[in-house]
Design brief:
This protein is of the alpha/beta class. The protein is 44% helix and 19% strand. It is built from 16 helices and 16 strands. The radius of gyration is 22 Å and the shape is globular. The structure holds the ligand O=P(O)(O)OC[C@H]1O[C@H](O[C@H]2O[C@H](CO)[C@@H](O)[C@H](O)[C@H]2O)[C@H](O)[C@@H](O)[C@@H]1O and uridine-5'-diphosphate. One of its GO terms (molecular function) is alpha,alpha-trehalose-phosphate synthase (UDP-forming) activity.
Length: 459
């Protein structure tokens, strides 16, 4: 079996200093730690030297070799902030109202993909298998093939793939689809995403179905399948069970007898945080007897802070949190704790274990690893309740969560009430069913099933 080469925009460098809070880096680190290999991507830094001239930063940590490069300010703006995060991200999360399209950004996006491919190509060995990740790198295989790369190249999309009508709003969608078919295998989080991709191509060009999951279009043959990303439940359980740091002892006392609701995600409009604040308000309105008995903590570290839509949502949350606390708070009770801070993942798992309800209601989400982590962090004898948006990829597997429509304030408020009053027996039953799913569909299984398929195809 050849060496695994993973390519992603965000990589988790060993010193952790530039590592973001996202699930992609968390999931890939877990996957690579087991198998080892080369991880190539952006080091999170902006440099003044143009990409072509800058030497790669090479680091070794146990069985992973890191090859990272920085981006110039201009490349970062066009490729990451603008095209990736102001065109593809909003569109693929069904927020066409937030798309700000500029042709210059599309060209910058293609240019950085070509630049990264040119940097990776000399590092590749003949029997390597290349696995590329996420929406920043949709044209990467096509760019690598221009160097005559013969290695099998797989791709995994961590975010949703939109319905064709939504995709078609992007001026370059036909070219995007064509470039994507240069991959040998395309993996998606859910069957719904995989189907949306295939139907978008069928809508544009002649699509030949060679057999189930194998297609031909634009002169390319490619395989399409869903591979829901998972977690490592055992390692999360160990983190969650571990001793509490002294600071946490105080937090635990501070939690008191109230039912603690937790929500945690990057500060992103796709996560549905303002809608959730309003649903919580609705719950407090409908159930005045619960005031003083619940406490909602929202952890939301800043993400992509240079993008205007992210700045806007940050202001919106500050205003809303202040308004709700001003309206319902008392001298002895604060209904909502809003923490615009990044938490270390090891600490987060302990917090998850101490809380009674996880309120995870994204408007759209590729998967949502926090939902899975929350379950794995629970005490199986006395677990908390997961309230989960039906529009998160995780909802396809976690059908025993309290599934809600995040746009429906009343439904979310009712789910909060149901969660606060759920019997221990029901909590244990739901948790056990979902843990069965998570123990099977682990991060290892995700990696193995994808790579087995890719190796098989390359034969
Ligand atoms: O790299 P950033 O711009 O700081 O953003 C963080 C990551 O966010 C997205 O994560 C997605 O991947 C998760 C794991 O598969 C999935 O659970 C989640 O639903 C997705 O939103 C993004 O896709 C990554 O590329 C970013 O690194
Ligand atoms: O303050 C934070 C917030 C989130 N996370 C981690 O970031 C990941 C978020 O992944 P998810 O799939 O839920 O969403 P994404 O951010 O990738 O869209 C999870 O592993 C979280 O534990 C973290 O370490 N610290």
């Amino acid at each position: 079996m050849g060496r695994l080469v993973v390519v992603s925009n965000r990589i988790a460098l060993p010193d952790h200093s530039k590592n973001g809070a996202g699930g992609l880096a968390v999931g890939l680190l877990d996957a690579l730690q087991e198998q080892g290999g080369l991880w190539f991507g952006w080091n999170g830094e902006i440099s003044k030297i143009t990409g072509e001239e800058e030497p790669l930063q090479i680091e070794q940590d146990k069985n992973i070799t890191y090859a990272a490069c920085s981006l110039t300010q201009n490349d970062y703006d066009l490729y990451y902030s603008q095209f990736s995060n102001t065109v593809i991200w909003p569109a693929f999360h069904y927020r066409l109202d937030l798309v700000e399209y500029q042709r210059e950004a599309w060209e910058g996006y293609l240019h950085v993909n070509q630049l990264l491919a040119a940097k990776l190509f000399p590092l590749l060995k003949q029997d390597d298998v290349v696995w590329v990740h996420d929406y920043h790198l949709l044209p990467f295989a096509a760019a690598l093939r221009e160097h005559d790369s013969q290695q099998p190249i797989g791709f995994f999309l961590h975010i949703p793939f939109p319905a064709p009508e939504v995709l078609m709003a992007l001026p370059d969608y036909q070219e995007i689809l064509r470039l994507m078919t240069a991959y040998s295998l395309l993996g998606f989080q859910t069957e719904r995403d995989a189907k949306a991709f295939v139907s978008a191509i069928a809508h544009e060009t002649e699509l030949v179905t060679v057999e189930q999951g194998v297609y031909q279009a634009y002169g390319n043959t490619f395989h399409v399948h869903d591979y829901p990303i998972g977690i490592d439940p055992d390692s999360i359980r160990k983190l969650a069970e571990g001793p509490l740091p002294p600071k946490m002892q105080a937090i635990r006392q501070g939690l008191g007898d109230a039912k603690n609701i937790i929500a945690c995600e990057r500060l992103d409009y796709s996560k549905g945080i303002p809608e959730r604040f309003l649903a919580y308000e609705s719950f407090l309105e409908k159930h005045p007897e619960q005031r003083g008995n619940v406490r909602y903590t929202q952890i939301a570290p800043t993400s992509r802070g240079e993008v205007q839509a992210y700045q806007a949502i940050r202001h919106q949350l500050e205003t809303e949190a202040g308004r709700i606390n001003g309206k319902y708070g008392t001298m002895s009770w604060t209904p909502l704790y809003y923490l615009n801070q990044h938490f270390d993942r090891r600490l987060l798992m302990k917090i998850f274990r101490l809380t009674d309800i996880a309120l995870i209601t994204p408007l759209r989400d590729g998967m949502n690893l926090v939902a899975k982590e929350y379950l794995a962090a629970q005490d199986p004898v006395n677990p908390g309740v997961l309230i989960l948006s039906k529009f998160a990829g995780a909802a396809c597997e976690l059908t025993d969560a309290l599934l809600v429509n995040p746009y429906d304030r009343d439904e979310v408020a009712n789910a909060i009430y149901k969660a606060t009053t759920m019997t221990q027996e029901e909590r244990v039953r739901r948790h056990a069913v979902m843990m069965n799913v998570l123990s099977y569909q682990t991060i290892t299984r995700w990696r193995e099933t994808f790579l087995d398929d890719l190796y098989e195809i390359s034969k």
